[in-house]
Amino acid sequence: MPLEGNRSALDGDPADERLETARRAVLSSFSLNGLDDDPELQAITRFAASMCKAPVALVSIVEESRQRFLAREGLQERETPRDISFCAHAMMGEGAMVVPDASRDERFADNVLVTGPLHVRFYAGQPLVSQEGTPLGALCVIDVEKRPAGLDDFQREGLAVLAQAVMRLLEARREDLRARRAIADREEQLLRMIDGVPQIAWSLEASGRFDYVNSRWKEVTGTEPPETADGWRPFIHPEDVDTTIGHWAKALAADEPFDSEFRLRKADGSWSWVLAQASPVARVNGEQQRWFGTLTDIDEVHQAIEARDLLAGELSHRIKNIFAVVIGLARLKAANAPEHKAFAEDMADTLYALSRAHEFVRPSGEAGQERLQGLLAALFAPYRDRMGQPRVAISGIDSELVARAATPLALVFHELATNSAKYGALSSAEGTVELTISDSGDNLVLEWRERGGPPLTGAPNNSGFGSRLIEMSVSGQLQGSWERRFEPGGLVAELTVSKAAIAP
Predict the structure, then answer these.
(1) Which helix H or strand E contains 181, and what residues bound it?
(2) Residues 424 and 282 grouped into a single domain
(3) Count of other CB atoms within 10 angstroms of residue 91
(4) Total structural domains within the chain
(5) Comparing C-alpha atoms, which of 65, 83, 87, 92 is closest to residue 75?
(6) pTM of the model
(7) SS (H, E, C) 79-116
(8) Is the pLDDT reported for residue 16 higher than 70?
(9) What is the 3-state secondary structure (H, E, C) of 317-329?
(10) Fewer Cβ atoms within 10 A, N terminus or C terminus of the chain?
(11) Other beta carbons less than 10 A from residue 145's beta carbon
(12) Span 51-69, pLDDT tens digits
């Protein structure tokens, strides 16, 4: 930044004022407060004095109205006015400014530093220039004796190298300050952002103490954030405390993400469902150092689920009643029309199987959780021996079951069981069925194997409605296939169904 003369923008020239304003802006970016008598700068200054055989050496920074000495050797003063500064002149040059005898230099002959008790005669100053090209001051050496020869080549080069070292220190400090400010700004921005999210957000040290909880905690609970994780206990519904604390203890022990739902006490004393989630982060030497987590209000979701379950339960109850009425009507009609009794009983049994499937996969069902083996066990419950033991033995793997798969599965296995009760193993007191479920990649294979039934004389000549029903259910709704074999021991039916069709 080319500036001429030593006019500190006091002469009123607008161009000089703009340049000086720009220079001071660059100077302020170094934030030099607190750098006085810095050990590294002091070492450079001391070496400069020794190298140039001068009693005084200074790192001088020229400010608006003063020159300030960040490092000093041989001088007590920490600053002097800018208008008597030698360094304000030196910093404007391209290289070192050397004044062999200040008393004979028209720029300084009347300067109080020359005429006064300091008795300055010799001065040599190397400009201190920022990366932007802005002059900040000078590294200078001073003597009370004149030096007609000035500096030799070694001293002149050495002073330039030392000035560069000074600037490297100042630039490194500036970059460090910039980085610290950027980090602080990002942290402040992040905290503002976290304070603005609808969740309660928190950070927990490995010691169990919170070092940050956003403002949402106080907005929701009406209290100051707890100091430790144990401080949350009074805010958790009594019915949820043991489960939630257990989940948290398990996550801590396993060093794995925490996920739990519980009711949180709000400022008005009411309870609201929240989803608590946290992850372990910031490991040092393999040891856990911190957890970050959130509490998300899911009360409306829970209310919607409760309303849905209530409606589903009511619908389920009504559908079960409809099944019961239809089954009853079928059997009543059969009683009045004996010639249709077999058909009516078969229809009633099929409807009953569908009713069990429906009951199994509905929220109000009593048959158990929505699992494949649970549905099959419910369907085969009527088939027991004289000791009450199941005649259809289910083994192998289990699978979750979606509602849409329950009906076709119920139809398929009801058909197999009904046929077995009429013609196969279940028609004999000693007959049994083994149903084995195995994994086959993207599919499940369900093998139905009958044993102990009446002797088979061969495969049927044609397929009836039951076989077509099984074919349509398996291929159309379960995305699979089936085949049957009539072996000497009994029927073997193998169903291959897609996991995607039956599991969530």
Answers:
(1) helix 153-196
(2) no
(3) 27
(4) 3
(5) 87
(6) 0.51
(7) EEEHHHCCHHHHCCCCCCEEECCHHHCCCCCCCHHHHC
(8) yes
(9) HHHHHHHHHHHHH
(10) C
(11) 10
(12) 999 999 999 999 999 999 9
Per DSSP, 198 falls in state S
Query: Per mean pLDDT, which range of 11-15, 122-126, 135-139, 485-489 is the poorest?
Result: 11-15
Helix (H) or strand (E) holding 200: strand 200-205
Judgement on whether residues 368 and 394 belong to the same structural domain of the protein: yes
**Count of all residues that appear for the chain in the document:** 504
48 and 156 belong to one structural domain: yes
Contacts of 368 (CB under 8 A, 6+ apart): 360, 374, 377, 378
Looking at residue 7, what is its pLDDT?
40
DSSP 407-451: HHHHHHHHHHHHHHHHHSGGGSTT-EEEEEEEEETTEEEEEEEEE
Which residues lie below 8 Å from residue 290, measured CB to CB, with a gap of 6+?
Answer: 203, 204, 205, 206, 280, 281, 282
| Token pair in block for residue 185 | 């700004």
Are the C-beta atoms of residues 72 and 95 closer than 8 Å to each other? no
Q: State the DSSP string of 246-312.
A: HHHHHHHHHT--EEEEEEEE-TTS-EEEEEEEEEEE--BTTB--EEEEEEEE-HHHHHHHHHHHHHH
Confidence of residue 366 (pLDDT cuts 50, 70, 90): very low
**Domain CATH code at residue 114:** 3.30.450.40
Is residue 159 one of the residues assigned to a domain? yes
Check residue 307 and give its pLDDT: 78
Residue numbers of the domain that contains 398: 303-502
Helix (H, G, I), strand (E, B) or coil at 338: helix
Cα(101)–Cα(114) distance, integer angstroms: 10
Distance CA 285, CA 56 (A): 50
